[in-house]
């Protein structure tokens, strides 16, 4: 029972992070043109930060359950298909868990790398899914790489860097979120 409450609280924290992230994106200045997507890309991926912080505290055997809970919370805040969100969330979880194999994620450099790599992997994965789902791709049976602009690829990198930088600041708060201790089964 205690673990189910912990997973429910993790779901709530990720959903709250998604709400804050969408609120921040909605309040970016509307200047039009190519500048507006760049400004929205400077909003950190808070849902990935909460997931990476949870992975840093929990045992490896809980990685798939964490990814499933995070994906369920994340699907409410995206127009991407749920299975694409699940696949991207599993990738983020595995990246953070792989980095954690070498040392604890409490070290600032590893926090920066884990948060940035997770946000980058998720952003690039959703970009690939969007290209694969484009209407032209469905008609021609080819991916929509002809419509791919350099700015489309740069934006996930900007989001990843901002996410990693914000992760350095928010990490002490994120690892102390209520409910994570109920899930904690340290592997070390």
Structural account:
The protein has helices at residues 2-26, 35-41, 46-57, 63-74, 82-102, 108-133, 135-140, 150-174, 180-183. It is an all-alpha fold. Helix 1 crosses helix 4 and helix 3 crosses helix 8. It is globular, with a radius of gyration of 17 Å.
Order of helices and strands: HHHHHHHHH
What is the residue-mean pLDDT, rounded to a whole number?
A: 84
**What percentage of amino acids are in beta strands?**
under 5%
Low-confidence stretches: none
Biggest β-sheet description = none
Distance between the termini: 24 Å
Number of strands: 0
**Helix fraction?**
over 70%
**Rg measurement, Å:** 17 Å
| Secondary structure tally, helices | 9
Instruction: Write down the oligomeric state.
Output: single chain
Q: Structural class, please?
A: mainly alpha
Which word captures the global form? globular
Keywords:
188 residues; mainly alpha; 73% helix; 0% strand
Tell me the layout of helices and strands.
Blueprint: H1 2-26, H2 35-41, H3 46-57, H4 63-74, H5 82-102, H6 108-133, H7 135-140, H8 150-174, H9 180-183
Helix pairs in contact: 1-3, 1-4, 3-4, 3-5, 3-8, 4-5, 5-6, 6-8
Produce a short descriptive summary:
By secondary structure, this protein is an all-alpha fold. Helix content is 73%, strand content 0%. The longest helix has 26 residues.
């Amino acid at each position: 029972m205690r673990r189910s409450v912990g997973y429910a609280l993790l779901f709530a924290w990720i959903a709250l992070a998604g709400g804050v992230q969408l609120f921040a994106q909605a309040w970016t200045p509307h200047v039009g043109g190519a500048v507006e997507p760049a400004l929205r890309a400077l909003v950190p991926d808070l849902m990935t930060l909460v997931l990476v912080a949870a992975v840093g505290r929990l045992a490896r055997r809980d990685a798939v359950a964490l990814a499933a809970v995070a994906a369920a919370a994340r699907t409410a805040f995206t127009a991407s298909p749920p299975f694409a969100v699940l696949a991207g969330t599993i990738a983020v979880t595995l990246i953070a868990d792989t980095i954690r194999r070498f040392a604890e994620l409490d070290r600032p450099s590893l926090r920066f790398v884990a948060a940035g790599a997770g946000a980058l992997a998720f952003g690039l994965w959703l970009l690939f899914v969007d290209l694969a789902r484009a209407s032209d791709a469905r008609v021609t049976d080819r991916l929509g790489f002809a419509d791919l602009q350099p700015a489309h690829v740069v934006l996930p990198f900007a989001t990843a860097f901002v996410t990693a930088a914000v992760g350095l600041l928010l990490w002490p708060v994120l690892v102390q979120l209520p409910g994570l201790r109920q899930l904690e089964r340290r592997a070390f």
